[in-house]
């Protein structure tokens, strides 16, 4: 089983749609969770951290379910500019440093 | 301020040749990572440097791969006797300090093509 698993997509949605991505992780002791965004042929950039209580940043909502070991990202009112690959990232216990494990990503394509 | 920089941005080499990839982290960042991303794949951890501590080399795929970080700043990833399966984008990232919630800042990557 991979440490971090994501549905690769692609998710093809019209502008204005709401879309949700899920991600599962295998190490139940993982402490930190993130969503990164990667545009085509660009480097990944942090989109948002994921907190236990859930958190929202504008049109983006991230949630963590520790019992089921999954993380979700909800995007409301999708924009064309949201088209990218979304990477689920987990920080498992690894001897005290920030070793991030990246999922393979979920591709989102927003069309007019 | 300046972000993470990497050079070269693109490298085409012949099978069997050695290559060196360079990463300049953000000034003051103590930790540095190398990742590899093959076409359509996720990021594969290669190696981690933190200050003067011994690096975590657990992700290096073979002994043809090595990396060093001089003076706690610039890092060089060396691939000896390159193979076609080494073709990928090599990404470098740095963080300010090795805390659990620190953001990793990525460089633009070096796209390596082995013919």
Textual characterization of the structure:
The complex is a heterodimer of chains A (112) and B (115). Chain A has strands spanning 4-6, 11-14, 19-25, 32-38, 45-50, 55-57, 60-65, 70-75, 84-91, 101-102, 106-111. Chain A is an all-beta fold and 112 residues long. The model of chain A has no long low-confidence stretch (mean pLDDT 91). Chain B has 115 residues and is mainly β. Chain B has no helices and 10 strands. In chain B, the strands form 2 sheets. In chain B, strands 2, 4, 5, 8, 9 and 10 form a 6-stranded mixed beta sheet that branches. Chain B has a 4-stranded antiparallel beta sheet with strand order 1-3-7-6, with no helix packed on it. In chain B, a hairpin with a 5-residue loop joins strand 6 (65-69) and strand 7 (75-79). The N and C termini of chain B lie far apart (37 Å). Classes of the chains: A mainly beta (112), B mainly beta (115). The interface between A and B is medium-sized, with 21 and 22 residues.
Protein topology:
The complex is a heterodimer of chains A (112) and B (115).
Chain A: E1 4-6, E2 11-14, E3 19-25, E4 32-38, E5 45-50, E6 55-57, E7 60-65, E8 70-75, E9 84-91, E10 101-102, E11 106-111
Parallel strand pairs in A: 2-11
Antiparallel strand pairs in A: 1-3, 3-8, 4-5, 4-9, 6-7, 7-8, 9-10, 9-11
Chain B: E1 5-7, E2 10-13, E3 19-24, E4 31-37, E5 43-50, E6 65-69, E7 75-79, E8 88-95, E9 105-106, E10 110-114
Parallel strand pairs in B: 2-10
Antiparallel strand pairs in B: 1-3, 3-7, 4-5, 4-8, 6-7, 8-9, 8-10
Our Rg estimate of chain A from Cα atoms comes to: 14 Å
Proportion in helices of chain A: under 10%
- β-strand amount of chain B: over 45%
Distance between the termini of chain A: 37 Å
Tally of DSSP β-strands of chain B: 10
Beta content of chain A comes to over 45%
Share of helical residues of chain B: under 10%
Question: How does the overall form of chain B come out from the CA principal axes?
Answer: globular
Provide the structure class of chain B: mainly beta
């Amino acid at each position: 089983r991979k440490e971090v698993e994501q549905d690769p997509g692609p998710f093809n949605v019209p502008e204005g749609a709401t879309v949700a991505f899920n991600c599962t992780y295998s190490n139940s002791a993982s402490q930190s969770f993130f969503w990164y965004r990667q545009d085509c042929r660009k480097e990944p950039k942090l989109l948002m951290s994921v907190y236990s209580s859930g958190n929202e940043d504008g049109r983006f909502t991230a949630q963590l379910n520790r019992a089921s070991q999954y993380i979700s990202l909800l995007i409301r009112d999708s924009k064309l500019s949201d088209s990218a690959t979304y990477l689920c990232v987990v920080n498992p216990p690894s001897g005290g440093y920030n070793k991030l494990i990246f999922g393979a990503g979920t591709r989102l394509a927003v069309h007019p | 301020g300046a972000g993470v920089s990497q050079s070269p941005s693109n490298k085409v080499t012949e099978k069997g040749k050695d290559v060196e990839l360079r990463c300049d982290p953000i000034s003051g960042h103590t930790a540095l990572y190398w990742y590899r991303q093959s076409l359509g794949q996720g990021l594969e951890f290669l190696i981690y440097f933190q200050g003067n501590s011994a690096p975590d080399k657990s992700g290096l795929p073979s002994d043809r791969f090595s990396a060093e970080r001089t003076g706690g700043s610039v890092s060089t990833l060396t691939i000896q006797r390159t193979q076609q399966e080494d073709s990928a984008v090599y990404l470098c990232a740095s963080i300010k300090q090795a805390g659990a919630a620190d953001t990793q800042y990525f460089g633009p990557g070096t796209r390596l093509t082995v013919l």
